[in-house]
Amino acid sequence: MSFHSVIVLVSYLLASTTALQKFTELYKWSSLDYTFSSDEHKNYALERGEFVPENNLPVGIEVWRNKLFVTVPRWSNGVPSTLNYIPLDVSSTESPKLTPYPNWAYNREGNCDGLTTTYRVKADKCNRLWVLDSGTVGIGNTTKQVCPYAIHVFDLTTDKVLRKYTLRPEDTNANTFIANIAIDIGSKGCDDTFLYASDELGYGLISYSWELNTSWRHTHSFLMPDPLAGDYNIGGINFQWGEEGIFGITLSPITESGFRLLFFHPLASNREFVVSTEILRNPKLTSEEIYHDFVVLSSRGAGGHITAHYMHDDGILYFNLIDRNAVGCWNSRLPYEPKNLGIIEVDDEALIFPSDVKVDSLNNLWVISDRMPIHLLSKLNFNDINFRIFYATIDTVLAGTVCANNIPYTPYGQTNDVSSKVY
User: Fold this and answer.
1) What's the distance, CA 292 to chain centroid?
2) Pfam families given for it (predicted)?
3) Full-model pTM
4) What domains are there in the chain, each with its CATH number?
5) Cys bridge to 63: 265, 301, 309, 360, which one at CB 3.0-4.6 A?
């Protein structure tokens, strides 16, 4: 049976009835659990406070073949593993336990050779999993930097570590908080790879070259928050995240110039920005030299906060709209403006804070929702369903939207609206 057939069968067996029109709800949890080696192992972790179920919140996902990766940050005590996966080809429950990746030891808190906290991870076409470890425990005023920021790269075919790279001191500052990365494989192949990381609270953008095995930092005023866009209303809670700068980052396909476009936005903003990776790949350029290479796009309008977005190989951008409990899309063959931003799905129960979105190699769109503001600012009801993972084919989600891929193809870097502003 093919992997695609397995996914279809699993979704048929596990999917519950919801008001969602396009997405299939594949998994759901009231609280998370893990594949402890035995009941004794789990009870030991519970007794010592190494596992506190209510402190475990899933935030990021990635899909590679039969593995669905799920990240759980160590915002409080009792998170036994930050990087985990669900085996899609053997899961037979609607609330599967998470298995630490690559193993328990690598995820042990305090092990600076392994992982402390990670948020969003990326699998690339070279069968590598890229993980940026923040090295932090806690959140906000409780944050402690117990290990340095580091990039971990795994060979997904062997589950072995290919490389660990610790960011240089000059790549970060006292306010640094990094939750998102993007992976840029160039035209020369797997060695021609760069990782970009967004420093949300330190207001920077970091480049790392796989070939050179070094990193550097970019700064720009577009990486900062909009002081008029820091107010949020999500899940019945009004709150302010006014200091949140550059957050979500994603990459276009390779353009005619030979480089990609990096799309990004501050979390406290209703706007999208873009810069060519030709700029980000060059460590010699100064902030003054690159100022005009960063381009601002039209505003999404009120209620346009986005945390995560992902551009597929066909140039269609998928994103969450956290204020609206929604998932949206944009076909980059069209100008970036509100009338061209489509809504794929809205659900005021199932999609409260759709934290992450990804597209897999089989052209399925995946979404995780986790009610994050309720977890952080109030209290989750653990008798209710709090975390959900959905998927649908991209043909299904695009049907009937302005993003439907029926527009004559325009190669990037020629007459495309965005590329014309960048090049």
Assistant:
1) 27
2) MRJP
3) 0.93
4) 24-33+123-398 (2.120.10.30)
5) 360
